[in-house]
Amino acid sequence: MKRIVLSGFVAILLTACLDTPTAPPAGTPNLAVVTNERTDLTGTVVFNECNGEDVLLQGIGHLVVTDNPQNGTHFQIHIQAVGLKGIGLSSGLEYVWVEQSRVADVFLENGAGSGLLSAHLRAVSKGAAENYELTFIVRGTQNSNGEQTSFRLDPGTITCR
């Protein structure tokens, strides 16, 4: 079974969300919702850095991308957990993900653009283990050819309490 460090797992998911969403083809009406997807995360194992325990996830990740034209295109990306829970593989403790929300703003004009994504994740233990809280920011830009010109993951904070 492959183990993923929780903060690394979240960073990978969020980086994937910074890929430029495609706008509707020319000549079609702009739709408010570009993407509305649910992904089953059941069976994914993440590593809780607060107590060194592997946690088996069960639940759904929900991704919504909306398009708000403003001098080009302005995408907003929202990712939320839907009934996301986890079971500690060594302790049997249950974890519940709450207040898990991430918002990214991606601005595009003639293919060039910039994006900002802020993340806040909190895993609450239903037992004696410490709760896990992670926050960080990802920033990126691309040129009119769609090539990434900058990428920065601001140092985040992990709080165990």
What does this structure look like?
There is one protein chain. The protein is mainly beta and about 160 residues long. It has one domain (about 5-20, about 30-160). The protein has one helix and nine strands, in the order βαββββββββ. The model is unreliable at about 1-30 (pLDDT under 50).
State which percent range the strand residues make up.
Answer: over 45%
Count of runs of 4 or more consecutive helical residues: 1
Helix/strand order: EHEEEEEEEE
For the terminal residues, how far apart are their CA atoms?
28 Å
Question: How would you sum up the major sheet?
Answer: 9 strands, mixed
Helix/strand class? mainly beta
Helix percent band: under 10%
How many DSSP-defined strands? 9
Are there runs of 5+ residues with pLDDT below 50, and where? 1-31
The domain tally reads 1
Computed over alpha carbons, the radius of gyration is: 17 Å
Give the mean pLDDT. Answer: 76
Shape: elongated
SSE layout:
Elements: E1 4-5, H1 6-17, E2 33-40, E3 45-48, E4 53-67, E5 73-88, E6 94-109, E7 112-125, E8 132-142, E9 148-160
Parallel strand pairs: 1-3
Antiparallel strand pairs: 2-4, 3-4, 4-5, 5-6, 6-7, 7-8, 8-9
